[in-house]
Structures are given as structure tokens and as C-alpha cells.
Write a structure and sequence with these properties.
single chain, 641 residues, alpha+beta, 6-stranded mixed sheet, 4-stranded antiparallel sheet, 13 helices, 21% helix, elongated
Length: 641
């Protein structure tokens, strides 16, 4: 095959022209469908412009002051219009008429007031000349106030968008609290006020609760509302209990729940712990929104260890809660709360005031601090107020002070004046374990860590009985429950009218005693337990050593193996339910029926979600059981007969 001849450029161009074939009709139609043509491109631009004008249309104001956007006249020929008339420089609204300027200022002022008094950082004048159709756009129909609402200007469109956003994302409570706190601080600074505003800042939610208590009809228990049909008392059977779990009151929390208590008359539940916060819940498990949180109080730097409700007669300064229903509605509700501090607080729910009681036992009421020596002042001073107990009638406050291995002192204060009344010294190895007031508030029982129980009478100001817990090994807690049907038969006028007493120890053993046996023994004794007053000024009582009575327990419960941390009787007259628990092991809780002193075998089960129990409580009628754990959860169960 010979060499190929190379074509010159002219021959190549001529060959290409001969190879190009003209497009037929089918090819032209396919190209038009795929790529389009000039006519279709212009039509699509016009359609897009018309669609955009339906949702967002600019108002063009003519020289006559009327809107020309809706004119249907054909477009005028703009070829003869000079170029300087086609464009203008937007120099603001300084040249507008005075009436238009006033309207703009009014609209701006109203918009600023709606935005919580905040001034906009930037203002666009084009917002006033823009209209938005709310009906044509399906995503904007939610902004309409009525079905006929359609065209709005730019400023109104912005306000409605902001309103919809705030409706979907409400302002958090902490933001409102911060704004209120800032407003109060600015007001105090401007007025140069010397009043202490810490209470109102530390407890921002107290006012709603006071209003809630003023209209206490919705919070009254069903039993007290129905006078024609009195509520039937709960009657439990032994061995098997009918219990049902309800919705949790609190699913989580910032700390463990160390305090749980029901209000004596209202369906209120108090929770507190090391987070320095007290929460009040409305116990309504069967309502549409079960167990709502009513209010809370945060006391800065006070990890709460003890808290209790108190119903007292209102003072003149806080007696703004009075109803004509009689009974407990005329009483003032206070909450005593204490921590590992040398002071405690009282929170009045009627007035919302928080009162700090500093150094309540620095000196005795009959002795001034100037007359005390350094040693006597040290003995009279209370280390901390973390162990606070309140009597059932809220007349007395007990503070436990351990003085080391030699024993401890129980200080009794008046709840009205918060002044010391008397104090009882208990000589017990390693101090006092626990204190429980008698049901009639005429005295209390104090148990030492060595198992010695001292019965102290507030009327006689002395220890009138003393006995020893059987097999006591590191006593941890004590509880009283039930009520004697015939107080005079057992001599209960001197040792109260409680039927049962339970004592827990570090080994997990719980001893249950029938106090009728103890009362009968001391009534038949020819002489009472001797006691000597150390000082007539301080009224301190010390029980002398001697023969100690050792009663036989009704039942010894050994179902738990870790130290007993909680013992709680039901508040009914029979005291037919006892809750015992230990926080040192998960799910360590048992229910005991009285008077049979048997443990319920069907609850709790292995799948009952209790956790590490840090507090327990029973409602006043005994139909609800509340358990708090170290995870901050508060679980609720209903007990049925």
C-alpha cells in the first residue's frame, strides 16, 4: 500500500461542507423538546415573574399617590423617557410628608414595644413597601388570623413570623427569671433602696403558690370535700398487698431525693435534697396532667438534709390566708428546712417569705452570751442544724447534737418564737442515732447508737423511762406508729399514746415492739427511772445508770441485710403499714403489715424499679406510697384494699 497523500486546508474545508447534512423536521423537534428554543425561554421567564409577584409584590407609588401595582393598563412605551427619570437615589424618608412620617414612627414604636422594649439594631425602609400574600402560599397560611386575612405589609409579616416562632418555642423560665432579676436589681439601684430583696430573688415562684393556697378548693382532698359520704379508712390484709404503679412524679433530678413528705391536709408533696432546692408537687395521678410541679425554692449554698411541713396559727404579718370553712384552712402552712449549717430556714407558703433563723441555740433564753464563759459557750452552741425534727402538732422543734463518744443532746425549741425550751442529754456510746416525737406531742423517744431508748416528757422536763433494744448492734433509726384505743388502760398518759415502735440497726435487723408491754411495765414499777437535773438554768436532764428494762420484741425482721436507713409508719390510727428500707443496696425495701407483723411477699418483686432508696413517704390516708432514690427519681404507687 502506497503512502497517503496529505490534503491541504482548502480541500479539508470543502470535504467537511459536503459531509454536513441538513437537519430534518424530526431532529429539529427533538432539539426543541430537549434544549428548548428562544421563544420557550422567554415564556418561562415571564411565567416565573408572574408567580413571584403573586407571593411578593412591590408597591409602586405613582405621582398621584395611588397604587399602580394592580393597574391593568398596557405598559407604556419607555423609549422616550429620559434616563434620569428611570432611576432615583433612595435617601431615606426625610422628604416624605409629615402625616406619613408620623404613621411610620407610630408603627415603629408599636413594633418596638412588642419586642419587649428592645430597639431594633437595623431598620429597612423596603419592609414598608413590600406586601406578602398569606393565602396563596400554603406554608404561610398558619400566620393568618382569619380565613379572609391575605395581604399584609412587610412589618406585619415580620411580627407574625416572630409570633409563630415564640408560639412554637416559648421563652424558657430561666430567661423570664433572669429578666425579672435584672429588672429588680436595676430598680433597687435606681431607687437606692436599703431593703433586703434576697428573698424575692431566691424564691421567684412563691407568689403563684400563695395565690394557689388562697383558692384552696381545687387542692382539697376528695375525702374532705364530700361531707355526706365520709371516706372509708384503708384496711389491709396480711401477706398479700394490692399495689399499682402510677406515673412517676419526677423522672430525674439534679441530686438524690433525701426528703419526702406529704402535706397533712392538701394533696401536696414536698421533695428536697443536696441540690439546695425544694419542690412542691400537686399529687393528682389521675388527672389529665398528672402530678404537676407547683413551685420550687432554691436556697443558695444550703444542701437540704431535713424538711417538714408545719401547720401553725398565722401571725398578723402573714395572715392573708383565711377562709370560712373552718378547721385547718385557718392555719398557716410553713416549711422548716435545714442543712449542715448553724442556722435553718422557715418558708411561709401563705406569704411567700423565707426567714433565716441564725444560731438558734447560741445561748439559753435565761443566760446572755456575755455572762457565758468560753467553755460554757462551747457547750451551749449547736454545731449544726442538719438533724431537725418537728412534732406532730408543730409546736416543738427538736435539734440533735452529738457530742462525740460520750452521747448527745436533744434541743427543744418553740416553733412560735424559735427560742430554746429545754434540752435532754442522752449518755449513749457514739451519740444519738434518732429521735421520734410521740403522737400527742407530749414527749419524744430518743435512741442511742448502743440501742438504749430514753423516753422524755416535755411536761416534766425529764427522762421518765429508759429501756434497751434487744440485740442492738449499731442502732440507726427509730419510728413510732399507731394509736392506743384505750390510753388510760396502759398508763399511756405518761409515755404518749403510740401503739408501735420499730428500731433498725446496721445489721439490717428491725425489731418491732408493742408499746403496751413497755407502758405496763413502767406503770407497775414502784419507782420511775431516776433522773437528776444538771442545771436549773439550762434544764438539762441526764438519766442515771441502773437496771435497764429489756422488753421482748413482737417480731424480729431480718429480710434486709444492709444498714436500715428508713422506717416509716402509716398515719392511720391502726398503724397497719410499716415501710423499711436501706439505701446501701438497690431495691432494698419491704412492707410490713401490722398487727400481724408479717412482711408482704408479693411486693416488691425483682423487676420493681426502686434503685438505691434515699427517702420514703406515705400519704396521710395511707393510699399512696412515694419512693425517692439517689438518681433524683420520685416514683409513686397506689395502695388499694
Amino acid at each position: 500500500m502506497g503512502p497517503t497523500r496529505r490534503l491541504d486546508p482548502e480541500e479539508q474545508a470543502a470535504r467537511k461542507q459536503r459531509e454536513v447534512v441538513e437537519k430534518d423536521t424530526t431532529e429539529i423537534q427533538l432539539e426543541k423538546i430537549l434544549f428548548g428554543d428562544q421563544t420557550g425561554f422567554l415564556n418561562s421567564l415571564n411565567a416565573a415573574a408572574e408567580a413571584e409577584q403573586k407571593a411578593l409584590t412591590r408597591i409602586e407609588t405613582g405621582h398621584d399617590g395611588y397604587d399602580n401595582a394592580s393597574d391593568e393598563a398596557p405598559e407604556e412605551d419607555m423609549l422616550d423617557v429620559p434616563d434620569e427619570d428611570l432611576f432615583f437615589l433612595d435617601a431615606g424618608t426625610t422628604d416624605l410628608p409629615e402625616d406619613v412620617m408620623e404613621d411610620l414612627k407610630t408603627e415603629q414604636t408599636g413594633t418596638h414595644e412588642e419586642n419587649h422594649g428592645r430597639t431594633a439594631l437595623w431598620y429597612d425602609s423596603d419592609d414598608e413597601r413590600i406586601t406578602v400574600s398569606l393565602a396563596s402560599n400554603t406554608r404561610l397560611r398558619k400566620l393568618r388570623d382569619t380565613e379572609d386575612d391575605d395581604i399584609v405589609n412587610g412589618l406585619e409579616y415580620i411580627n407574625r413570623l416572630r409570633r409563630q416562632y415564640e408560639r412554637l418555642h416559648p421563652t424558657p423560665d430561666w430567661v423570664n427569671y433572669a429578666r425579672k432579676k435584672t429588672k429588680l436589681s436595676h430598680r433597687a439601684h435606681n431607687d437606692d433602696s436599703d431593703t433586703d430583696s434576697d428573698i424575692s430573688i431566691d424564691s421567684p415562684s412563691t407568689k403563684p403558690l400563695a395565690e394557689l393556697l388562697r383558692s384552696a378548693g381545687s387542692l382539697m382532698r376528695q375525702e374532705s370535700l364530700s361531707t355526706d359520704k365520709p371516706s372509708r379508712p384503708l384496711k389491709l390484709r396480711p401477706e398479700v398487698i394490692d399495689i399499682q404503679r402510677l406515673k412517676d412524679i419526677a423522672s430525674s433530678g439534679p441530686s438524690s431525693i433525701d426528703v419526702l413528705q406529704f402535706h397533712p391536709t392538701y394533696p401536696l408533696l414536698l421533695t428536697a435534697g443536696p441540690s439546695s432546692t425544694i419542690n412542691l408537687y400537686h399529687t393528682s395521678p389521675h388527672s389529665q396532667t398528672p402530678n404537676p410541679l407547683l413551685t420550687s425554692l432554691h436556697v443558695k449554698g444550703t444542701p437540704i438534709t431535713s424538711a417538714a411541713f408545719a401547720l401553725t396559727h398565722p401571725t398578723s404579718s402573714s395572715s392573708n390566708f383565711n377562709q370560712n370553712d373552718g378547721g385547718t384552712t385557718d392555719l398557716e402552712t410553713k416549711i422548716y428546712l435545714s442543712a449542715r449549717r448553724r442556722y435553718f430556714h422557715t418558708w411561709s407558703l401563705n406569704s411567700g417569705t423565707l426567714t433565716k433563723i441564725s444560731r438558734p441555740l447560741y445561748s439559753n433564753p435565761t443566760t446572755t452570751s456575755a455572762s457565758l464563759t468560753k467553755k460554757s459557750r462551747k457547750n451551749a452552741e449547736l454545731p449544726t442544724c442538719e438533724n431537725l425534727k418537728l412534732s406532730p402538732n408543730a409546736a416543738y422543734v427538736a435539734l440533735i447534737s452529738n457530742t462525740g463518744s460520750s452521747g448527745g443532746v436533744v434541743h427543744i425549741l418553740s416553733s412560735a418564737t424559735h427560742q430554746p425550751i429545754c434540752q435532754c442529754r442522752v449518755d449513749s456510746l457514739n451519740g444519738i442515732a434518732d429521735v421520734a416525737f410521740w403522737r400527742d406531742s407530749s414527749g419524744f423517744s430518743a435512741v442511742g447508737k448502743n440501742g438504749e431508748v430514753s423516753e422524755y416528757s416535755l411536761a416534766e422536763r425529764r427522762v421518765i423511762a429508759r429501756w434497751m433494744d434487744e440485740g442492738a448492734v449499731g442502732t440507726t433509726t427509730l419510728a413510732l406508729g399507731g394509736e392506743l384505743k384505750d390510753p388510760g388502760s396502759a398508763g399511756s398518759t405518761s409515755l404518749g399514746n403510740d401503739r408501735w415502735i420499730a428500731i433498725g440497726s446496721t445489721s439490717g435487723i428491725v425489731n418491732i415492739y408493742d408499746r403496751r408491754q413497755i407502758l405496763a411495765h413502767f406503770k407497775s414499777a414502784t419507782t420511775s427511772v431516776p433522773a437528776t437535773a444538771v442545771s436549773s438554768n439550762t434544764r438539762t436532764v441526764t438519766a442515771e445508770s441502773g437496771s435497764t428494762f429489756r422488753p421482748k420484741p413482737l417480731r424480729v425482721l431480718d429480710q434486709l441485710t444492709t444498714p436500715i436507713s428508713h422506717l416509716h409508719f402509716s398515719e392511720d390510727a391502726a398503724g397497719q403499714l410499716l415501710v423499711m428500707a436501706s439505701r446501701w443496696k438497690k431495691n432494698a425495701l419491704r412492707l410490713v403489715h401490722l398487727p400481724s407483723a408479717t412482711v408482704y411477699r408479693n411486693w416488691p418483686t425483682d423487676k420493681t424499679p426502686l434503685g438505691r432508696i434515699s427517702s420514703v413517704a406515705l400519704s396521710p390516708e395511707g393510699r399512696y406510697l412515694v419512693v425517692g432514690n439517689e438518681g433524683g427519681k420520685v416514683r409513686l404507687w397506689q395502695i388499694r384494699d
